[in-house]
Amino acid sequence: MSTFEWVIGIVNVEEKYLTAEQYGNKINAGGSALRQKQKWTVEFQDDESIYIRSYTRNYISVDRLGKVTCEAKTRGENEKFVLEYATDGSARWAFRSWKYKYFLAGTGDQINCLAKKASGEDLSLWYTPFAMHPQVTLFSMLGKKYAIADSTQVRLIGVKAWGPKALFTMEFSCGKYRFKTANNRYLCKDGSLVDTNGDDTLFGIEIHLSEDKTLKGLAFKDNDDRYLSVTGPSGILKTNYKVLRKEEFFRLQESHPQVIIVGSRGKTASVGMEVMLKKITQAPTKSEIFQLEYDSTSRKWYIETYDGTFWGVAKDGRIEASTNSISDKNMFEIIWLSNGRASIKGSNGKRLVSKGTGNLAASLPEDAEDDGFQIRILNRPVIVFRSEFGFIGIKTVPGSNKDEYICTKAYPSVITLDQLNDGRYSLQSENGKYWCLNLQSGGHPTVKADSAVPVPFVLEFRDTSLMTILAPNGHYMMCDKVGHFHAIATEPGPQCMLYY
Predict the structure, then answer these.
(1) In terms of C-beta distances under 8 Å and separation of at least 24 residues, what long-range contacts does 28-35 make, across chains too?
(2) Each residue's pLDDT tens digit, 336-360
Protein backbone atom coordinates (compact mmCIF):
# COMPACT_ATOMS: atom_id res chain seq x y z
CA MET A 1 0.00 0.00 0.00
CA SER A 2 1.56 3.28 -1.10
CA THR A 3 1.74 6.33 1.14
CA PHE A 4 1.93 10.08 0.92
CA GLU A 5 3.86 11.52 3.87
CA TRP A 6 3.45 14.99 5.31
CA VAL A 7 5.39 16.27 8.33
CA ILE A 8 3.47 18.60 10.64
CA GLY A 9 3.16 20.02 14.12
CA ILE A 10 -0.06 19.23 15.99
CA VAL A 11 -1.24 22.24 18.03
CA ASN A 12 -4.15 22.33 20.48
CA VAL A 13 -6.51 25.14 21.48
CA GLU A 14 -3.97 26.40 24.04
CA GLU A 15 -1.41 26.81 21.22
CA LYS A 16 0.73 24.01 22.65
CA TYR A 17 2.39 21.41 20.44
CA LEU A 18 1.81 17.68 20.79
CA THR A 19 5.16 16.33 21.97
CA ALA A 20 6.71 12.85 21.92
CA GLU A 21 8.95 12.37 24.93
CA GLN A 22 11.96 10.16 24.34
CA TYR A 23 11.77 8.49 27.74
CA GLY A 24 8.74 6.41 28.58
CA ASN A 25 7.22 6.94 25.12
CA LYS A 26 4.74 9.39 26.63
CA ILE A 27 2.81 12.09 24.82
CA ASN A 28 1.87 15.53 26.10
CA ALA A 29 0.72 18.83 24.67
CA GLY A 30 3.35 21.04 26.26
CA GLY A 31 5.64 22.12 23.42
CA SER A 32 6.03 25.84 22.85
CA ALA A 33 7.56 25.61 19.35
CA LEU A 34 7.93 23.23 16.42
CA ARG A 35 11.19 21.42 17.16
CA GLN A 36 12.30 17.82 16.72
CA LYS A 37 10.09 16.30 19.43
CA GLN A 38 7.07 18.18 18.07
CA LYS A 39 7.36 16.86 14.50
CA TRP A 40 4.87 14.20 13.40
CA THR A 41 4.81 12.38 10.07
CA VAL A 42 1.32 11.62 8.79
CA GLU A 43 1.34 8.55 6.53
CA PHE A 44 -1.69 8.74 4.24
CA GLN A 45 -2.86 5.37 2.85
CA ASP A 46 -4.83 4.32 -0.22
CA ASP A 47 -7.80 3.26 1.95
CA GLU A 48 -7.90 6.85 3.28
CA SER A 49 -6.58 5.85 6.68
CA ILE A 50 -3.53 7.46 8.26
CA TYR A 51 -0.78 6.57 10.71
CA ILE A 52 0.97 9.18 12.85
CA ARG A 53 4.70 8.63 13.40
CA SER A 54 6.94 10.46 15.88
CA TYR A 55 10.53 11.59 15.37
CA THR A 56 11.64 8.35 17.12
CA ARG A 57 9.76 6.41 14.38
CA ASN A 58 7.20 5.12 16.89
CA TYR A 59 3.48 5.28 16.08
CA ILE A 60 0.68 6.80 18.12
CA SER A 61 -1.49 3.98 19.50
CA VAL A 62 -4.91 3.88 21.15
CA ASP A 63 -6.34 1.10 23.31
CA ARG A 64 -9.98 0.27 24.10
CA LEU A 65 -9.92 2.54 27.18
CA GLY A 66 -8.81 5.56 25.12
CA LYS A 67 -5.26 5.56 26.46
CA VAL A 68 -2.77 7.11 24.05
CA THR A 69 0.85 5.97 23.82
CA CYS A 70 3.68 6.32 21.34
CA GLU A 71 5.73 3.14 21.56
CA ALA A 72 4.54 0.96 18.66
CA LYS A 73 7.31 0.13 16.18
CA THR A 74 4.88 -1.36 13.65
CA ARG A 75 1.46 -0.40 12.35
CA GLY A 76 -1.71 -2.22 13.33
CA GLU A 77 -5.38 -1.46 13.92
CA ASN A 78 -4.66 0.40 17.17
CA GLU A 79 -2.33 2.75 15.26
CA LYS A 80 -4.80 3.45 12.47
CA PHE A 81 -6.68 6.77 12.29
CA VAL A 82 -9.01 8.62 9.96
CA LEU A 83 -8.32 12.27 9.19
CA GLU A 84 -11.31 14.62 9.31
CA TYR A 85 -11.45 18.37 8.68
CA ALA A 86 -13.22 20.97 10.79
CA THR A 87 -16.50 22.26 9.41
CA ASP A 88 -16.16 25.65 11.14
CA GLY A 89 -13.80 27.14 8.55
CA SER A 90 -10.80 27.04 10.91
CA ALA A 91 -8.81 24.58 8.74
CA ARG A 92 -8.14 22.45 11.83
CA TRP A 93 -7.75 18.68 11.65
CA ALA A 94 -9.24 15.90 13.77
CA PHE A 95 -7.82 12.39 14.19
CA ARG A 96 -10.41 9.62 14.73
CA SER A 97 -9.39 6.12 15.78
CA TRP A 98 -10.21 3.69 12.97
CA LYS A 99 -10.98 0.88 15.43
CA TYR A 100 -12.61 2.68 18.39
CA LYS A 101 -14.23 5.63 16.54
CA TYR A 102 -13.26 8.27 19.14
CA PHE A 103 -11.10 11.36 18.52
CA LEU A 104 -7.63 12.27 19.74
CA ALA A 105 -8.04 15.13 22.25
CA GLY A 106 -6.68 16.83 25.33
CA THR A 107 -4.32 19.37 26.86
CA GLY A 108 -1.16 19.18 28.95
CA ASP A 109 -0.44 15.64 30.12
CA GLN A 110 -4.06 14.59 29.63
CA ILE A 111 -3.99 13.33 26.06
CA ASN A 112 -6.61 10.67 25.32
CA CYS A 113 -8.77 9.29 22.54
CA LEU A 114 -12.20 9.65 24.16
CA ALA A 115 -13.77 12.64 22.40
CA LYS A 116 -17.04 11.74 20.69
CA LYS A 117 -17.04 14.69 18.29
CA ALA A 118 -14.57 16.68 16.22
CA SER A 119 -15.09 20.03 17.92
CA GLY A 120 -13.31 22.76 19.79
CA GLU A 121 -15.39 22.10 22.89
CA ASP A 122 -14.19 18.49 22.95
CA LEU A 123 -10.56 19.63 22.50
CA SER A 124 -10.32 17.34 19.48
CA LEU A 125 -9.51 19.91 16.76
CA TRP A 126 -5.85 20.63 16.08
CA TYR A 127 -3.95 23.22 14.07
CA THR A 128 -1.35 21.55 11.86
CA PRO A 129 1.52 23.83 10.72
CA PHE A 130 3.84 21.96 8.38
CA ALA A 131 7.43 21.29 9.42
CA MET A 132 9.27 21.84 6.13
CA HIS A 133 11.12 25.06 5.35
CA PRO A 134 8.52 27.72 4.46
CA GLN A 135 10.20 28.75 1.19
CA VAL A 136 8.87 26.32 -1.39
CA THR A 137 7.82 25.74 -4.97
CA LEU A 138 4.25 24.75 -5.87
CA PHE A 139 3.82 21.78 -8.24
CA SER A 140 0.55 20.68 -9.89
CA MET A 141 0.15 16.90 -9.66
CA LEU A 142 -2.14 16.66 -12.69
CA GLY A 143 -0.61 19.29 -14.97
CA LYS A 144 3.01 18.49 -14.01
CA LYS A 145 3.76 22.21 -14.01
CA TYR A 146 5.14 24.66 -11.46
CA ALA A 147 3.49 27.88 -10.33
CA ILE A 148 5.24 30.98 -11.65
CA ALA A 149 4.40 34.51 -10.43
CA ASP A 150 4.34 37.54 -12.70
CA SER A 151 3.50 41.13 -11.77
CA THR A 152 -0.26 40.54 -11.43
CA GLN A 153 -1.02 36.80 -11.20
CA VAL A 154 0.34 33.32 -10.54
CA ARG A 155 0.21 30.82 -13.40
CA LEU A 156 0.86 27.09 -13.61
CA ILE A 157 3.19 27.31 -16.59
CA GLY A 158 6.64 26.32 -15.33
CA VAL A 159 8.27 23.23 -16.82
CA LYS A 160 10.86 23.82 -14.09
CA ALA A 161 10.83 25.81 -10.88
CA TRP A 162 13.43 28.23 -12.21
CA GLY A 163 14.29 31.60 -10.76
CA PRO A 164 12.78 33.75 -7.99
CA LYS A 165 9.35 33.88 -9.65
CA ALA A 166 8.88 30.18 -8.76
CA LEU A 167 9.64 30.77 -5.07
CA PHE A 168 6.85 31.23 -2.50
CA THR A 169 7.21 31.93 1.20
CA MET A 170 4.41 30.25 3.16
CA GLU A 171 3.15 32.38 6.04
CA PHE A 172 1.24 30.55 8.78
CA SER A 173 -1.61 32.56 10.33
CA CYS A 174 -4.69 31.51 12.27
CA GLY A 175 -4.26 27.86 11.28
CA LYS A 176 -4.00 28.67 7.56
CA TYR A 177 -1.32 29.70 5.07
CA ARG A 178 -0.61 32.55 2.71
CA PHE A 179 1.44 32.32 -0.50
CA LYS A 180 3.88 35.24 -0.59
CA THR A 181 5.86 35.88 -3.77
CA ALA A 182 9.52 36.89 -3.90
CA ASN A 183 8.50 40.52 -4.49
CA ASN A 184 6.36 40.52 -1.32
CA ARG A 185 2.88 40.15 -2.79
CA TYR A 186 0.16 37.73 -1.72
CA LEU A 187 -1.91 35.33 -3.80
CA CYS A 188 -5.59 36.20 -3.47
CA LYS A 189 -8.41 33.70 -3.94
CA ASP A 190 -9.59 35.55 -7.10
CA GLY A 191 -6.22 34.90 -8.75
CA SER A 192 -4.76 38.39 -8.30
CA LEU A 193 -1.61 39.35 -6.45
CA VAL A 194 -2.20 41.92 -3.71
CA ASP A 195 -0.04 43.96 -1.35
CA THR A 196 -2.04 43.33 1.84
CA ASN A 197 -2.51 40.04 3.66
CA GLY A 198 -6.26 39.97 4.33
CA ASP A 199 -8.68 37.08 4.80
CA ASP A 200 -8.93 36.53 1.04
CA THR A 201 -5.28 35.49 1.00
CA LEU A 202 -5.69 32.69 3.58
CA PHE A 203 -5.82 29.02 2.53
CA GLY A 204 -6.34 25.95 4.67
CA ILE A 205 -4.35 22.79 3.84
CA GLU A 206 -5.96 19.38 3.35
CA ILE A 207 -4.47 16.03 2.32
CA HIS A 208 -6.49 14.03 -0.21
CA LEU A 209 -6.31 11.30 -2.81
CA SER A 210 -8.29 11.24 -6.04
CA GLU A 211 -11.27 8.94 -6.52
CA ASP A 212 -9.29 6.61 -8.78
CA LYS A 213 -6.38 6.80 -6.29
CA THR A 214 -3.92 7.84 -9.00
CA LEU A 215 -3.11 11.16 -7.30
CA LYS A 216 -2.21 11.99 -3.71
CA GLY A 217 -1.35 15.42 -2.48
CA LEU A 218 -2.33 18.70 -0.90
CA ALA A 219 -5.41 20.78 -1.57
CA PHE A 220 -5.78 24.43 -0.54
CA LYS A 221 -9.19 25.77 0.47
CA ASP A 222 -10.18 29.44 0.83
CA ASN A 223 -12.59 30.90 3.40
CA ASP A 224 -15.55 30.17 1.09
CA ASP A 225 -14.63 26.44 0.99
CA ARG A 226 -13.47 26.68 -2.62
CA TYR A 227 -10.32 24.86 -3.73
CA LEU A 228 -7.32 26.45 -5.41
CA SER A 229 -6.90 25.20 -8.99
CA VAL A 230 -5.77 26.16 -12.47
CA THR A 231 -8.21 28.16 -14.59
CA GLY A 232 -8.31 28.71 -18.34
CA PRO A 233 -5.73 28.25 -21.09
CA SER A 234 -3.36 30.77 -19.50
CA GLY A 235 -3.10 28.62 -16.36
CA ILE A 236 -4.18 31.23 -13.79
CA LEU A 237 -4.18 29.97 -10.21
CA LYS A 238 -7.37 30.86 -8.30
CA THR A 239 -10.15 29.20 -6.29
CA ASN A 240 -13.12 27.82 -8.20
CA TYR A 241 -15.04 24.77 -7.05
CA LYS A 242 -16.23 23.40 -3.71
CA VAL A 243 -15.96 19.88 -5.11
CA LEU A 244 -12.47 18.42 -5.14
CA ARG A 245 -11.21 17.50 -8.62
CA LYS A 246 -7.87 16.28 -9.94
CA GLU A 247 -6.93 19.85 -10.88
CA GLU A 248 -6.73 20.71 -7.17
CA PHE A 249 -3.90 18.33 -6.21
CA PHE A 250 -0.51 19.91 -5.45
CA ARG A 251 2.84 19.20 -3.84
CA LEU A 252 5.00 21.71 -2.01
CA GLN A 253 8.65 21.09 -2.81
CA GLU A 254 11.81 22.49 -1.28
CA SER A 255 13.70 24.79 -3.61
CA HIS A 256 17.27 24.00 -4.72
CA PRO A 257 19.70 26.94 -4.85
CA GLN A 258 19.98 28.44 -8.33
CA VAL A 259 23.08 30.50 -8.93
CA ILE A 260 25.33 32.32 -11.33
CA ILE A 261 29.04 31.52 -11.16
CA VAL A 262 31.33 34.52 -11.62
CA GLY A 263 35.04 34.14 -12.30
CA SER A 264 37.93 36.54 -12.64
CA ARG A 265 37.38 40.02 -14.09
CA GLY A 266 33.64 39.71 -13.50
CA LYS A 267 33.01 37.19 -16.25
CA THR A 268 30.08 34.79 -15.80
CA ALA A 269 29.85 31.08 -16.58
CA SER A 270 27.60 30.41 -19.56
CA VAL A 271 26.65 27.14 -21.21
CA GLY A 272 26.71 26.29 -24.90
CA MET A 273 28.44 23.20 -26.25
CA GLU A 274 31.00 23.88 -23.52
CA VAL A 275 30.96 25.95 -20.34
CA MET A 276 32.89 29.17 -20.62
CA LEU A 277 33.26 32.51 -18.89
CA LYS A 278 32.01 35.55 -20.74
CA LYS A 279 31.11 39.14 -20.03
CA ILE A 280 27.37 39.71 -19.74
CA THR A 281 25.88 43.20 -19.70
CA GLN A 282 22.22 42.34 -19.05
CA ALA A 283 20.37 40.18 -16.54
CA PRO A 284 21.44 36.51 -16.55
CA THR A 285 19.53 34.29 -18.95
CA LYS A 286 18.77 30.57 -18.70
CA SER A 287 22.23 29.93 -20.17
CA GLU A 288 23.92 31.55 -17.15
CA ILE A 289 21.72 30.20 -14.33
CA PHE A 290 22.56 26.81 -12.79
CA GLN A 291 20.98 24.66 -10.12
CA LEU A 292 23.15 23.19 -7.37
CA GLU A 293 22.18 19.73 -6.11
CA TYR A 294 24.06 18.14 -3.23
CA ASP A 295 24.98 14.45 -3.00
CA SER A 296 25.24 13.63 0.71
CA THR A 297 27.09 10.35 0.12
CA SER A 298 30.03 11.89 -1.72
CA ARG A 299 29.60 15.36 -0.18
CA LYS A 300 29.88 16.83 -3.63
CA TRP A 301 27.63 18.78 -5.96
CA TYR A 302 25.91 18.36 -9.30
CA ILE A 303 25.55 21.50 -11.41
CA GLU A 304 22.44 21.34 -13.61
CA THR A 305 21.44 23.57 -16.53
CA TYR A 306 17.92 24.73 -17.36
CA ASP A 307 17.79 22.15 -20.17
CA GLY A 308 18.40 19.31 -17.72
CA THR A 309 22.02 18.62 -18.63
CA PHE A 310 24.82 18.49 -16.09
CA TRP A 311 28.32 19.90 -15.95
CA GLY A 312 30.97 17.24 -16.40
CA VAL A 313 34.72 16.93 -16.89
CA ALA A 314 35.86 15.78 -20.33
CA LYS A 315 39.03 13.70 -20.84
CA ASP A 316 41.14 16.79 -21.50
CA GLY A 317 39.70 18.57 -18.44
CA ARG A 318 37.27 20.83 -20.32
CA ILE A 319 33.92 21.46 -18.62
CA GLU A 320 30.99 20.37 -20.74
CA ALA A 321 27.25 20.27 -20.12
CA SER A 322 26.18 17.67 -22.65
CA THR A 323 24.92 14.74 -20.60
CA ASN A 324 21.46 14.15 -19.13
CA SER A 325 22.66 11.43 -16.77
CA ILE A 326 24.47 11.67 -13.45
CA SER A 327 27.76 9.90 -12.80
CA ASP A 328 31.01 10.42 -10.91
CA LYS A 329 32.17 12.70 -13.75
CA ASN A 330 29.38 15.15 -12.87
CA MET A 331 30.46 15.64 -9.27
CA PHE A 332 32.19 18.82 -8.14
CA GLU A 333 33.61 19.78 -4.78
CA ILE A 334 32.98 23.31 -3.53
CA ILE A 335 35.66 24.61 -1.15
CA TRP A 336 34.90 27.96 0.47
CA LEU A 337 37.75 30.46 0.65
CA SER A 338 36.16 32.62 3.38
CA ASN A 339 36.17 35.81 1.30
CA GLY A 340 32.88 35.34 -0.50
CA ARG A 341 34.51 33.14 -3.13
CA ALA A 342 34.86 29.38 -3.56
CA SER A 343 37.24 27.00 -5.23
CA ILE A 344 35.51 24.41 -7.45
CA LYS A 345 37.24 21.07 -7.91
CA GLY A 346 36.34 18.68 -10.74
CA SER A 347 35.97 14.89 -10.65
CA ASN A 348 39.59 14.57 -11.86
CA GLY A 349 40.78 16.19 -8.63
CA LYS A 350 41.85 19.45 -10.29
CA ARG A 351 40.41 22.88 -9.62
CA LEU A 352 38.51 24.85 -12.24
CA VAL A 353 40.18 27.70 -14.08
CA SER A 354 39.39 29.80 -17.14
CA LYS A 355 41.55 29.22 -20.19
CA GLY A 356 42.66 32.07 -22.41
CA THR A 357 39.72 31.38 -24.72
CA GLY A 358 37.31 31.69 -21.80
CA ASN A 359 36.61 27.96 -21.62
CA LEU A 360 36.36 26.48 -18.14
CA ALA A 361 38.60 23.51 -17.45
CA ALA A 362 39.48 21.38 -14.42
CA SER A 363 43.21 21.84 -14.94
CA LEU A 364 44.64 24.23 -12.35
CA PRO A 365 47.93 22.84 -10.95
CA GLU A 366 47.87 21.94 -7.27
CA ASP A 367 50.48 24.55 -6.32
CA ALA A 368 48.90 27.37 -8.35
CA GLU A 369 47.10 30.26 -6.70
CA ASP A 370 43.31 29.95 -6.95
CA ASP A 371 41.22 33.12 -6.99
CA GLY A 372 38.06 31.04 -6.86
CA PHE A 373 34.59 31.94 -8.07
CA GLN A 374 31.68 33.91 -6.73
CA ILE A 375 28.61 31.64 -6.39
CA ARG A 376 25.72 34.10 -6.26
CA ILE A 377 22.29 32.74 -5.34
CA LEU A 378 19.50 34.14 -7.55
CA ASN A 379 16.30 32.43 -6.39
CA ARG A 380 16.40 33.84 -2.85
CA PRO A 381 15.87 37.62 -3.15
CA VAL A 382 14.18 37.08 0.21
CA ILE A 383 15.34 34.35 2.55
CA VAL A 384 14.27 32.59 5.74
CA PHE A 385 16.77 30.88 8.07
CA ARG A 386 15.88 28.08 10.46
CA SER A 387 18.18 26.48 13.02
CA GLU A 388 17.64 23.13 14.72
CA PHE A 389 16.11 25.09 17.62
CA GLY A 390 13.71 27.33 15.69
CA PHE A 391 13.66 30.19 13.21
CA ILE A 392 16.15 33.05 13.10
CA GLY A 393 14.20 36.16 14.00
CA ILE A 394 14.19 39.36 16.01
CA LYS A 395 13.75 39.41 19.76
CA THR A 396 12.50 42.93 20.31
CA VAL A 397 14.09 44.67 23.26
CA PRO A 398 11.51 46.85 25.07
CA GLY A 399 12.31 50.54 24.80
CA SER A 400 15.09 50.04 22.27
CA ASN A 401 15.32 50.12 18.49
CA LYS A 402 18.43 47.95 18.51
CA ASP A 403 16.74 44.64 17.82
CA GLU A 404 18.69 41.45 18.35
CA TYR A 405 18.33 38.20 16.43
CA ILE A 406 17.80 34.89 18.21
CA CYS A 407 17.51 31.32 16.85
CA THR A 408 14.44 29.98 18.69
CA LYS A 409 11.57 31.93 17.15
CA ALA A 410 8.36 29.97 16.53
CA TYR A 411 7.65 31.81 13.27
CA PRO A 412 10.04 32.94 10.53
CA SER A 413 11.35 36.39 9.76
CA VAL A 414 11.71 37.18 6.07
CA ILE A 415 15.08 38.78 5.28
CA THR A 416 15.93 40.64 2.08
CA LEU A 417 19.16 39.41 0.51
CA ASP A 418 21.23 41.94 -1.43
CA GLN A 419 24.30 40.87 -3.38
CA LEU A 420 27.43 42.97 -3.09
CA ASN A 421 29.98 43.18 -5.89
CA ASP A 422 32.57 40.94 -4.22
CA GLY A 423 30.35 37.87 -3.73
CA ARG A 424 29.29 38.74 -0.20
CA TYR A 425 25.77 39.74 0.86
CA SER A 426 24.01 42.28 3.00
CA LEU A 427 20.94 41.14 4.90
CA GLN A 428 18.09 43.57 5.45
CA SER A 429 15.59 43.08 8.26
CA GLU A 430 11.86 43.61 8.05
CA ASN A 431 12.42 46.87 9.96
CA GLY A 432 14.38 48.25 6.99
CA LYS A 433 17.74 48.14 8.80
CA TYR A 434 20.71 45.93 7.87
CA TRP A 435 22.32 43.14 9.85
CA CYS A 436 25.43 44.15 11.74
CA LEU A 437 27.46 42.76 14.61
CA ASN A 438 26.95 44.00 18.13
CA LEU A 439 30.43 43.79 19.64
CA GLN A 440 29.34 44.99 23.08
CA SER A 441 27.86 41.71 24.28
CA GLY A 442 30.34 40.22 26.69
CA GLY A 443 32.69 38.76 24.10
CA HIS A 444 29.94 37.01 22.14
CA PRO A 445 29.06 39.19 19.14
CA THR A 446 25.36 39.04 18.28
CA VAL A 447 23.48 40.19 15.19
CA LYS A 448 21.40 43.36 15.38
CA ALA A 449 19.06 44.80 12.78
CA ASP A 450 20.52 48.21 13.42
CA SER A 451 22.71 49.42 10.54
CA ALA A 452 21.64 52.13 8.11
CA VAL A 453 24.17 50.91 5.53
CA PRO A 454 24.82 47.41 4.12
CA VAL A 455 27.26 45.22 6.07
CA PRO A 456 28.93 42.29 4.25
CA PHE A 457 28.32 38.66 5.33
CA VAL A 458 29.43 35.52 3.50
CA LEU A 459 26.86 32.79 2.75
CA GLU A 460 28.37 29.34 2.19
CA PHE A 461 26.28 26.48 0.79
CA ARG A 462 26.83 23.24 2.72
CA ASP A 463 23.95 21.16 1.39
CA THR A 464 20.96 21.58 -0.92
CA SER A 465 19.11 23.04 2.06
CA LEU A 466 21.89 24.00 4.51
CA MET A 467 24.24 26.95 4.65
CA THR A 468 26.58 28.69 7.08
CA ILE A 469 27.00 32.42 7.60
CA LEU A 470 30.47 33.89 8.02
CA ALA A 471 30.25 37.19 9.89
CA PRO A 472 32.43 40.29 9.30
CA ASN A 473 34.60 39.37 12.30
CA GLY A 474 35.78 36.20 10.52
CA HIS A 475 33.72 33.85 12.71
CA TYR A 476 30.71 31.72 11.84
CA MET A 477 27.27 32.39 13.25
CA MET A 478 26.41 29.68 15.78
CA CYS A 479 23.13 28.75 17.48
CA ASP A 480 22.30 27.14 20.80
CA LYS A 481 19.12 25.86 22.44
CA VAL A 482 18.89 28.92 24.70
CA GLY A 483 18.41 31.08 21.60
CA HIS A 484 21.83 32.69 21.24
CA PHE A 485 22.84 33.57 17.67
CA HIS A 486 26.52 34.45 18.06
CA ALA A 487 29.44 35.07 15.68
CA ILE A 488 31.89 32.94 17.67
CA ALA A 489 32.64 29.70 15.77
CA THR A 490 36.06 29.38 14.15
CA GLU A 491 34.94 26.36 12.10
CA PRO A 492 31.54 25.60 10.50
CA GLY A 493 30.30 22.94 12.95
CA PRO A 494 26.82 21.36 13.29
CA GLN A 495 25.41 24.26 15.33
CA CYS A 496 26.37 26.68 12.55
CA MET A 497 24.14 24.94 10.01
CA LEU A 498 21.04 26.88 8.95
CA TYR A 499 18.20 25.64 6.76
CA TYR A 500 17.41 28.13 3.98
Answers:
(1) 28/108, 28/109, 28/111, 29/106, 29/107, 29/108, 29/111, 30/108, 30/109, 32/410, 33/390, 33/408, 33/409, 33/410, 34/9, 34/129, 34/131, 34/390, 34/410, 35/388, 35/389, 35/390
(2) 997 889 999 999 999 999 987 889 9
